[in-house]
Design goal:
The complex is a heterodimer.
Chain A: H1 2-39, H2 41-46, E1 50-51, E2 56-57, H3 60-91, H4 94-107, H5 112-129, H6 140-150, H7 152-164, H8 168-176, H9 181-210, H10 213-219, H11 236-243, H12 249-279
Helix pairs in contact in A: 1-12, 3-6, 3-7, 3-9, 4-7, 5-6, 5-10, 6-10, 7-9, 8-9, 9-12, 11-12
Chain B: E1 8-9, H1 16-19, E2 22-33, E3 36-47, E4 51-55, H2 62-68, E5 79-87, E6 90-91, H3 99-105, E7 106-109, H4 120-130, H5 136-149, H6 153-156, H7 169-181, E8 187-191, H8 199-212, E9 217-221, H9 225-231, E10 234-239, E11 242-248, H10 249-254, H11 259-265
Parallel strand pairs in B: 1-11, 4-9, 4-10, 7-8, 8-9
Antiparallel strand pairs in B: 2-3, 2-5, 5-6, 10-11
Classes of the chains: A mainly alpha, B alpha/beta.
Chain lengths: ~300, ~270
Amino acid sequence: MKDRVIEKALLLAALSAIGILALITIFIFREGLPVVFSKGPGEFLTGTVWQPSRGHYGLVPMIVGSAIVTFGALIIGVPLGLACAVVLAEMAPPRARKILKPTIELLAGIPSVVYGFIGMMILVPWIRNNPALGGTGSSALAASIILGIMILPTIIGISIDAIEAVPRSYREGSRALGATEWQTITGVVIPAARSGIVAGVILGMGRAVGETMAVIMVAGNSVQIPDSILKPVRTLTANIALEMSYASGQHEQALFATAIVLFIIIMLLNSLAGLARRKKKRKRKLKGDPAGGVEVA
Amino acid sequence: MTAKPTVNVSSSGSSTALRGPAKLEVKDFDLFYGSFQALKKVSMQVTERRITALIGPSGCGKSTLLRAMNRMNDLIPSVRTTGEIVLDGKNIYAPATDVEALRKRVGMVFQRPNPFPLSVFDNVAYGPRAHGLRNRAGLRDVVEKSLRSVDLWDTLKDDLDDDALTLSGEQQQRLCIARLVAVEPEVLLMDEPCSALDPIATMKVEELMQKLVEQYTIVIVTHNMQQAARVSQDTGFMLLGDLVEFGLTERIFTRPTEKKTEDYISGRYG
């Protein structure tokens, strides 16, 4: 009797969680779709001018901005994260791993405004004053670096799990052929852990695409397609956050349309990550160098 | 187990001449896992181009001894050894030993087939690549030759790009042997290579061993006494870290000198 009550209560909790998510989704689409249809999807996806006051809602500068900072974050975060995961999972003494792994997970818990603040106070002036870089400092480069650091815990955490899940027999088989530790890591361990690593990278990418606060603080946010990484950019998330306080009418709906674009990108990335993880069990062919094959865009 | 039994190493006496030169010689070898002594003053000789079998109940140290022969035990942090294992006159536990070069000469096949999650081709090419062979044609030749030597070439020549994990258990174990043969080792260490295989596959792998021994020196660990009797020329019986008796397989199985050996081969141990 008591069991049944608890069972029902849990079911209700689960259903309402799903229900809330479903409602949010429906709400976003209901608010955003009308303007997409009245202006035509082409205006949003191919228009390069964002001037809400004149009824121009081209999202291309923001899509490009998000793509640039995300790609930049991956260029910084993937090699660093992978290297860190390999060292922690394969080389570090167990005691160091015990301390470092939770520390890295802790990085994920730092509020993004703190990352943004550090970026604003240290990174942006550094870029501005560096003779090789210059510009205003608030730029795609600054956003990429901050995001690259912010996605590290995701990439490292998931990659470590994937590397640790590689059976010991693969490592022994490789060492028994006279391969060195390093050859074993690059030749067997990373290829075997590849799908998990790719999943980590995609989830990190999702985090980079979705990050808002830290990006607003360092990216400069002007609506333009930048011709250099030292120029300011505005991302899709920043677009919503910056204008939501005063938008109304069609403008407001256009922000919801921005949310739809973001929503679809994140959904795609998450399902890709799930696919990459599941693919592990299935038949697949791996050839040549295991280091390649991480870019998914 | 109180007093250490006198180890009957018939190989160290006059019969050495009968056997030909020692490829690998274990001399007063002790091995500890932390404070646990897994091998106790083991001495034995592995003769070139013969199959030497190590038998004994689980936990007797036979796999440990096998893994000591190419220093796979190095991968376990708490391992400590004393004594020598001599390969072609050189102590492999000498400080200057190049362990990778040693393992290239003394390779190992494991209990469970452990092909890498790569293609058949990349599995066989793995060792040669690790040792610096890069050119495609050279690799192809090695792969073909190695797969031929384990009788897999005709079956797999059109499927070299298939994932090795899709092969049957027997094929996987053959592939693992081919992968080993590809680095041109001198000694093959086999750690219960048939325990994960069915009887027919076992028979085929045993036939393969008979073929390989024409070219290689083989040491096999097995808990299957019939297998030891069938395939090997020399047999060592181990118990609780001691090499109780070592000698010609035929003699060990018909006229063991040690009571414990007799008890074991007549089925009085596990």
